[in-house]
């Protein structure tokens, strides 16, 4: 008797992303052909839009190495090292219905050299722990972004961290709260403002939490994807991808950059 091996949603996503490199046709069957809502504004809607990206691959194709993958209810979110029309780091979010992918969001940024603390945009631990603390960790991250980044309540900042023990993977910021403070000071001197207006979605699995927010950077509408590792109720590590939101005239779909279902 044949045993059907059940493929998890997380495994489906990792296989689908890898198929952009390998050309494997099987993982495309994990997308619902009748309903695939695309929130990458540079890609057309539906399965046809996904196919068009593959057809327009540069000579030598794409390279895809998914570093981290997480599952939260009907969502899977990943952090991937791409060569996608040039070396990039990306976060992808997929929503499932009845075992099939029906919706996709992402943020991409060009790959940068290591920061002044020696961390790259993707290194660090990948081990998922504290599954029983997922909801508490999501709440912590949501409160941090609303308190500090949206509402500017800087007097609450230190309460979210264990002293200066904070590993930073943003290419322009050094480790620790001290590094964050220096970066914000430098930006202020240059007249660059980083504003967070709305948190659209918070997803998590155990000690890892991804927050997806909207705001502006240097006056440009910006999508912020921030991945945090939480340890003992404090923020311990941070990776991020900021992407400028393209104007409506250049968009290939009308689904919006966010618009997560309730």
From TrEMBL:
<protein>
    <submittedName>
        <fullName>Nuclear transport factor 2 family protein</fullName>
    </submittedName>
</protein>
<feature type="domain" description="SnoaL-like">
    <location>
        <begin position="147"/>
        <end position="238"/>
    </location>
</feature>
<dbReference type="InterPro" id="IPR037401">
    <property type="entry name" value="SnoaL-like"/>
</dbReference>
<dbReference type="InterPro" id="IPR032710">
    <property type="entry name" value="NTF2-like_dom_sf"/>
</dbReference>
<dbReference type="Pfam" id="PF12680">
    <property type="entry name" value="SnoaL_2"/>
</dbReference>
């Amino acid at each position: 008797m044949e045993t059907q091996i059940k493929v998890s949603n997380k495994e489906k996503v990792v296989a689908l992303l890898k198929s952009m490199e390998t050309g494997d046709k099987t993982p495309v069957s994990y997308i619902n052909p009748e309903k695939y809502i695309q929130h990458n504004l540079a890609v057309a809607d539906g399965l046809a839009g996904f196919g068009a990206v593959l057809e327009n691959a540069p000579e030598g194709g794409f390279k895809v190495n998914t570093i981290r993958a997480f599952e939260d209810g009907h969502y899977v979110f990943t952090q991937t090292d791409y060569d996608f029309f040039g070396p990039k780091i990306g976060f992808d979010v997929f929503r499932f219905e009845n075992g099939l992918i029906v919706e996709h969001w992402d943020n991409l940024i060009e790959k940068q050299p290591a920061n002044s603390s020696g961390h790259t945009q993707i290194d660090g631990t990948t081990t998922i722990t504290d599954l029983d603390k997922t909801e508490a960790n999501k709440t912590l991250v949501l409160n941090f972004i609303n308190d500090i980044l949206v509402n500017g309540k800087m007097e609450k900042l230190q309460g979210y961290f264990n002293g200066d023990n904070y590993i930073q993977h943003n290419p322009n910021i050094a480790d620790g709260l001290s590094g964050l403070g220096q970066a914000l000071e430098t930006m202020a001197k240059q007249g660059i403002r980083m504003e967070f207006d709305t948190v659209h979605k918070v997803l998590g699995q155990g000690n890892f939490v991804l927050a997806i927010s909207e705001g502006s950077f240097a006056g440009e509408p910006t999508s912020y994807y921030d991945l945090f590792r939480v340890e003992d109720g404090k923020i311990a590590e941070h990776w991020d991808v900021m992407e400028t939101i393209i104007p409506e005239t250049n968009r290939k779909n009308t689904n919006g950059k966010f618009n997560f279902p309730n």
